[in-house]
Amino acid sequence: MTTHLPKPLAAAALALALAAAPAQAADSTRWVGTWTASPQAALPAGFVLPNGAPAQLRNQTVRQVARVSLGGKQLRIELSNAYGDQPVTIGAAHIARSGGGARIQAGSDRAITFGGQPSVTIQPGAPVLSDPIALDVAALGEVAVSLYLPQTTALKTLHWEGRQDAYLTSGNRAADAQLQGETIQTRPFLSGVYVQAPAATRSVIVLGDSITDGAASTPNQNRRWPDFLAARLAQRDVAVLNAGISGGQVLNDGMGVSALARFERDVLGQKADTVFVLLGINDIGWPGSSFEPKRAPMSAQRLIAGYRQLIARARLNSLRIVGATLTPFEGALADSPISGYYNTDKDKVRQTVNAWIRDSGEFDAVVDFDAITRDPAHPARFLPAYDSGDHLHPGDAGYRAMAEAIDEAVLFAPR
After folding, report:
1. How does DSSP classify residue 384?
2. pLDDT at residue 5 tops 60
C-alpha cells in the first residue's frame, strides 16, 4: 500500500532530505594537503648564501608551478605572510593546469577567490586560504598558480629552495596563457595546495632540511626524495607533503625557524597521519662553520633531547612519528665557499645520534638512510653513485634510493 503524506509534510520531508544530502556528501570527503612549501623569512643582507629573489615586487605577476601528490576535482590554495611586517595585497590570483614552463593548459585557467572576492590582503604573520576551486587535476599533476601584486610589496616570506622555476613579469598577467620575463627558483607567498579527497585518504608529512628540500636534485624534474615517494604512494591514496627547509635544524633557527618552533604550523596544522623526521645534520655541521662560526659545538645529548620533544608533541596529537638516521657527510661543502662544515668530532656526534635513533625504540619506526646511502668501503662518505658531488646532498639516484627504501608499513600503523 502506498502512503501519501499531506503536501506540507511532504514538502518538509523533501527539504530535510535535501538539507541532509550535502552533509552526507561532506562526511565522505575531507580537505587534505596535497602539496606544501614551508614558509621562511627572506635571508638577511650579508648572509653567506644569496637570497635568490628580488627584495620587493611592484605591479608584477609571479607564476609558480607545483606538482601535487594526490589529485581531485576541487582545490584550495594557501598563501602566507608569516614573516611580513606589513599587509600583503594580492590583486588577482589564478590557477590552471601547467602546460610546462611558464605556460598553462588551454581551457584550464580558473580565477581564485577569497571569501567571494578576487583580491585579498594577507595580514602580517598570517596565512589566507582560498575558496574552493573547481579544477580537475590528476594525481602527480602540475598546477600553475599566478599571483598579481599591484602595490610595492617587500618580499619577506618565501620558500628559498624551490628547485622549480617561477616566473616574474610586469603588470597583471595572472590569466595569460604564457608569461615572459625573469625566472627565479624561490617560492614567494605560496605555501599550500589542498584537495578534496575521500575521507579515508592518508597523508605523510616529511619534516626535514635541504636533503628533504631536494638540494642538488635536477631542477624542474621533481626528483627530491619525497617526490619519488609520492609517485609510489599516490596510487594508494596517500599524500606526501614536503616540509623540508634548506638549512633547517631541530634546535636552532637558521635558514628558517627550528623544527621545534615550526612543528605546530608545518606538521600539526596539516592533520597528517604520520610525520617523517630527517633532521639534525645542520645542528651538527653549522656550528664552527661559515654559517655559525661562533656557535659552540652540538652535543649528541642536546640533539637527542630535541628529538624527544618532537616525539612527545607527535604522541600528544596521536600522530605517528618515524625517524631517519643522518646521512654521511665527510668532506661536505669542501669545494664551496662554506668552510668548516665537517670534522671528525662532528661525525662522532652523528654516529652517536644515529645509534640512538636506531636502537632507542623511541620513534614509532626508523628508516636507516645512513646504511642505505653510505659507501661500504668508506662509511663516513656517500656511495659515489648517490653523491651529488658536494658530499652533503644526494644526487637524483641517491634520492630515488632513499624513497625506494621506505616501506608503506613503516609509515602507517596497522588499521
Report:
1. G
2. no
Whether 11 has a pLDDT exceeding 90, the answer reads no
Mean of pLDDT over the chain: 94
Q: Quick check: pTM over 0.90? A: yes
Distance CA 51, CA 61 (A): 19
Q: Is residue 336 part of a domain?
A: yes
The residues near 126 (Cβ < 8 Å, ≥ 6 apart) are 80, 81, 82
What does the angle CA 366 – CA 357 – CA 379 come to, to the nearest 5 degrees? 95
In a domain, 24, yes or no: no
Between CA 83 and CA 123 the distance in angstroms is 10
Please state, in angstroms and rounded to a whole number, the distance separating the CA atoms of residues 163 and 182: 16
How does DSSP classify residue 375? E
Alpha carbons 95 and 97: distance in angstroms, whole number: 7
Among 177, 196, 215, give the residue marking a domain's end. Answer: 196
Count of CA atoms in the C-beta half-sphere (13 A) of 341: 20
Residue 354: pLDDT band (50, 70, 90) is very high
Q: Are residues 255 and 323 in the same domain?
A: yes
Q: Categorise residue 189: left if φ over 0, alpha if ψ from -120 to 50, beta otherwise.
A: left
The predicted-structure confidence for 32-64, as pLDDT tens digits, reads as follows 999 999 999 999 999 999 999 999 999 999 999
Helix segments in 194-343, DSSP class H: 210-213, 225-233, 259-266, 281-285, 300-316
Per the domain annotation, does 281 fall within a domain?
yes
Residue 279 CA, distance from chain mean position: 14
Give me the domain span that covers residue 226: 201-415
